[in-house]
Amino acid sequence: MPAYGLTGSVAVLDASLGRVTMLSSPSPFALSSQSIGLGKALTAARVSADRKTLFALSRGVQPQRTPNDERPQLLLIDGGSSPKVSRSYSLTEPMEQLVLDPQNEWAVVYGGDGVVVNLNELVLVNLAQTGADALSSKTLLSFGGSPRRFTFTAPLAVPGGEPRRFLLVERDADLVLIDLGAPDRDAVTVPLPKTDNGGTASPAQVVYDADSASLAVRVTGSTSVLLLQLAAPTSDGEDYSVVPNLVDVGGQPAAIDFVHNSQGLRLVALVGSSAVLVDPETATTQSVQMPAAFTGIRRITAELNPVTDGDVALLYGANVTKIAYFNLSGAPGALFRSIESSEIGVSVKNVIDVPGETFFDRKLLETPNQQFYVLDLHTRESAPMKTNGALSLEVAPDGERVWAYNPGQVGFASVDFATLHPVSLIAERRVSNVFDIEGGSGQRTAIALHLGGDLNSGIGATVLDALAPSTAYARFYSGLELGGVK
Predict the structure, then answer these.
(1) What is the DSSP string of 215-238?
(2) 486 pLDDT band (50/70/90 cuts)?
(3) How many angstroms separate the CA atoms of 393 and 218, rounded?
(4) Among 209, 333, 478, 484, which residue's CB has the most CB atoms within a 10 Å radius?
(5) pTM, rounded to two decimals
């Protein structure tokens, strides 16, 4: 059974019964449950970026035999300490794929398995509205491709108009731009360049810079990066125009991103053990030697003290045991200020942000083995944490701690960011998930779920004080498979 952690509750899906059991903690160590119907034939469930809402997409009754048969719908459930259905959107056709906007303004549903399915038909749901007016159906012009990935941009400062947000749709051989300020207008399709050997290229990564309304696309099998500049309209009937530029960076890049240095806006392309800086206006390139062949880049300027003349980026990689701080500030005209590398002994496959205002300058470095690091960006210190099995991490929504567990084992642990002190715990049953929620009386509660296993063990949960976790004071609940709490 899939489970999702929200701000004030935990959602446990039971697709076979078409319901979700919402677990909340009204008082310390207490657990209550509430079953909410999800609609017939659930196809997708997602949690909003702020963890406040559970989205559930269902097909409804298929085929429909009477006008009263349930229609396909997108259901929104408030995930606070008193869970409830907040609203629903009725769809005309069953859909199977669901994509959410990180800014909680839009949702996109698409795909299906009917007799005939238009793979390029999207239904845009404006979450600020209700009813049929919230839905916009859009079919993308296609030459054979179908959607692969979606990116919601921040407001882009397009010349000649107000800043506007875009939905970027990556397809097999092109990129589609949908203006979310006018979703009924025609989308703009930008074909991708060929691979270096003349084959069909696919998008591998899309990045953007909001202030300059610049986009960049990294494509497969090519040493070139496609730059796109959103400009003022060039003819009547246009809201904006797109100016493409293809730039060779000297090798197939592993990652790209926009940064600012003292010279202005630059696109960084990580190519082997070099970082190639591209001027989007002139398409000129400058190469900087790196201490390792990094394959990941993350801007961390906002988490540091203000840098007035340039960004700072964290570099890492899945095949190197170093991380580096790439400081792009410096004297006027300088390409960068410094590259400070640190040997941590393990590779990094993912960088996890810490929410909240207290420890926003911390990052979790997830490694391929049984370790993770708590990285303090200000002190440049990285604290290694070792686990005794395959690792799953769950950062508390308040940003005060992280929970680590090995799904299917009885052990789990909490690491407090203030002290970096780990507390190891042993549950009565195997742990499938650990979630940190706000209880009904304002307390922080940790819920370790025990889902699966044999029929005799059933499904249960262990409830702890998240701020002072101890199994000596924990309370175990069983019977969740019955839709209630024992």
Answers:
(1) EEEEETT-SEEEEEEEE--SSTT-
(2) low
(3) 29
(4) 209
(5) 0.92
